Amino acid sequence: MLTLLGSLLGFISSAFPDLLKIWQDKQDRKHELQILDRQMEQMRLGHNQRLEEITVNADINESLALLKYDSQPSGVKWVDGLRASVRPVITYAFFLLFTTVKVSALYVLMVDQGVEFVAALPQIWDAETQALFAAVMSFWFGQRALAKARGQ
User: Fold this and answer.
1) Structure pTM?
2) Which pLDDT tens digit goes with each residue over 17-30?
3) How would you write the chain as a 3-class SS string?
4) What is the pLDDT of residues 62-114, one digit of tens each?
5) What value does the mean pLDDT of the chain take?
6) Contact yes or no for 104/115 (Cβ under 8 A)
7) Environment class of residue 124 by beta-carbon count within 10 Å: exposed (0-12), middle (13-18) or buried (19+)?
């Protein structure tokens, strides 16, 4: 019995280094796969970042080309004048339309419905109108202020 137990213990102890080596190889392979996965993820992130840089550079180059094209005079004075006045004319037209609608609403409230000016004014100049007007003014004057700040 002691012989059998000794033989079994000898066999197990002789197989133990091989089992330990197999377990260690499995852990090493698992670790190498994790490293490869991380390297592939880093490469993917690098490619995505490079693609984003290319897209941003393309947008910048497109904007520069459009600005360069737009800054060249055509040689026809009325075309150049019209090109320079399109934004302001549209802005003035919408502001005039906005003012006309609000003044008409004030007129209808005061004349047709008999509401006094002090009571009619808050009805046509409500929170939505204030927000709209503030957004338009901030866009126009904020854009100029930011352009001046960038230039300095």
Assistant:
1) 0.46
2) 777 788 888 888 99
3) CHHHHHHHHHHHHHHHHHHHHHHHHHHHHHHHHHHHHHHHHHHHHHHHHHHHHHHHHHHHHHHHHHHHHHHCCCCCHHHHHHHHHHHHHHHHHHHHHHHHHHHHHHHHHHHHCCCCHHHHHHHHCCHHHHHHHHHHHHHHHHHHHHHHHHHC
4) 888 877 876 777 788 887 777 777 777 888 888 899 999 999 999 999 999 99
5) 83
6) no
7) middle
